[in-house]
From TrEMBL:
InterPro entries linked to this entry: Solute-binding_3/MltF_N (IPR001638)
Superkingdom of the source species: Bacteria
Keyword annotations: Signal
Location of the Solute-binding protein family 3/N-terminal domain: 73-300
Signal peptide range: 1-24
Organism from which the protein derives: Bifidobacterium catulorum
Entries under SMART domains matching the protein: PBPb
Name of the protein in question: ABC transporter substrate-binding protein
Database matches in Gene3D superfamilies: Periplasmic binding protein-like II (3.40.190.10)
Protein's UniProt keywords contain Signal: yes
Length: 314
């Protein structure tokens, strides 16, 4: 997929240099300092979609429970190591990405200020409804997650394997037994690799050396540096990582199973789920949603209908 010139201006070292990774790691604890203000996402040359023209929709605002809107803020849990969906700008604290822009657009519709709070991916869902009003962080809808939260769909993405360019270790994604595989903690990709590892052991083959990291940037670094043979991540994230590391990495094989991604809402909070669904659908219908995705070069993941708790196979 293609990315705009201003996104490319975000240093190639974003996903390759250890110094910048250290900076990103500093933002993994929940902190109000990580909150993004309304308006376009701007920091040191990184700019997203300008949401400042989006007006409050009184009908949508009335749907949202007072427990969320009473403080004037839509507080969203986000793992900001997952470019181009959600990551930190060059100042090391400002969240940017297409999920962040979507958050701002939704908040504007409700007449609220968006606050994206940086957190590790696996800590967000357990905190939705307590620390965060909702979670927006490239959550793939799974049966297991549907037991913990309600979901409102807004995107679709597959999964992609990534290796060093030229695949020097001759990795075959169909047989990862005995290989070093990097994944982000708590992702569906980690679940799939764990299942593959069980199959390896059941057949008497060498176990997979699963390197699970809290940050996707660390996952990417593991392969770029040779610490791991291959990594597995959402297709938009894998594509962005490949582009930002120049000639270092490449995709291996075809993308695997396209599935919906969704906003996480407190389980049983039907009012918030319906308000989010209506708000996302309005952004889709009026063209704002497409403009946001186009800004980040991820329009291939666009969907035309926002759904609450869609049926999934796994």
């Amino acid at each position: 997929m293609s990315f705009t010139t201003r996104i490319k201006a975000f240093a190639a070292a974003t996903l390759a240099a250890a110094t910048l990774f250290s900076m990103a790691a500093c933002g993994t604890s929940d902190s109000s300092d990580a909150g993004a203000s309304d308006g376009s996402s701007k920091s040191a040359g990184t700019q997203g979609f300008d949401t400042s023209s989006i007006k409050k929709d009184d009908e949508l605002a009335a749907m949202l429970p007072d427990s969320i809107k009473s403080d004037g803020v839509l507080k969203v849990g986000t793992d900001t190591s997952y470019a181009p969906a959600e990551f930190l700008a060059e100042d090391g604290k400002t969240p940017v990405g297409f999920d962040v822009d979507l958050t701002k657009a939704l908040a504007a519709e409700f007449g609220l200020k968006a606050e994206n709070v940086t957190a590790t991916f696996d800590s967000i869902i357990p905190s939705v409804g307590s620390k965060y009003d909702v979670g927006i962080s490239s959550f793939t809808v799974t049966k297991e997650r549907l037991q913990a939260v309600d979901f409102v769909t807004y995107f679709k993405a597959g999964s992609t394997y990534v290796v060093k360019k030229g695949n020097p270790n001759k990795i075959d994604s169909a047989d990862l037994c005995g290989k070093k595989v990097a994944v982000q903690t708590g992702t569906t990709q980690e679940e799939e690799v764990n299942k593959a590892n069980d199959a390896c052991k059941a057949s008497g083959k060498s176990a997979i050396d699963i390197q699970s990291s809290k940050l996707q940037t660390d996952v990417t670094t593991a392969v770029a540096s040779g610490k791991a043979d291959i990594f597995y991540a959402d297709t938009p994230v894998a594509g962005y990582a490949i582009k930002q590391t120049g000639d270092t990495l490449e995709a291996l094989g075809e993308d695997v199973g396209v599935t919906p991604e969704a906003i996480a809402v407190k389980k049983g909070d039907a009012k918030t789920a319906e308000a989010m669904q209506k708000a996302v659908q309005k952004l889709m219908d009026d063209g704002t949603y497409k403009k946001i995705l186009d800004t980040w070069g991820v329009s291939s993941g666009a969907v035309d209908k926002a759904e609450i708790n869609p049926s999934v196979e796994s």
